[in-house]
Amino acid sequence: MAKIATLSIGEVFVGAKSLKKLEAKLSRLQYLNRHKTKFSSNWKKAQLKIAKLHRKIANIRKDTLHKLTTYLAKNHSQIVIEDLNVSGMMANHKLAQAVGDMGFYEFRRQLE
After folding, report:
1. How much is the pLDDT for 5?
2. 83's torsion region: left (phi>0), alpha (psi -120 to 50) or beta?
3. Collapsed DSSP state (helix, strand, coil) of residue 35
């Protein structure tokens, strides 16, 4: 269970994990597109499906972050966040996908 935020009162917010949920579908679409002739009609249609799925993943992540940051800004007068080395965590191949899926940098940017 990946937590994006934990408040001092013990309230825990779980991240959306949009990529994790749709990873199998994305993988399948990319697999099916692998051997198509580049720039053919079928390749373009497959690329469009892949792009739509990427957009859906991004929109789920954005929605979760916007709802969380809005809730925090409206209901709490003082917010303190931990200074995480996100780029360092992204360099670790075991953590990178989970960290990227949570959107920590965007979370901090919105709070600021």
Report:
1. 87
2. beta
3. coil
What is the pTM (predicted TM-score) of this model? Answer: 0.85
Give the chain's domain count: 1
Q: Which residue has the tokens 């709490």?
A: 76
pLDDT along the chain (112 residues), means of 10: 84 89 96 96 98 96 94 90 88 89 88 88
Count of CB atoms situated within 10 Å of the CB of 86: 16
| R_g of the chain, CA atoms, integer Å | 17
β-bridge mates for residue 12, sequence order: 6
Residue 72 sits in which domain range?
3-111
Tokens at residue 4, please? 């994006």
d(CA 36, CA 54): 20
Q: Token match 């931990």: residue?
A: 82
Q: Helical H runs in the chain?
A: 18-33, 41-75, 86-91, 96-102, 104-111
What pLDDT shows up at residue 84?
A: 85
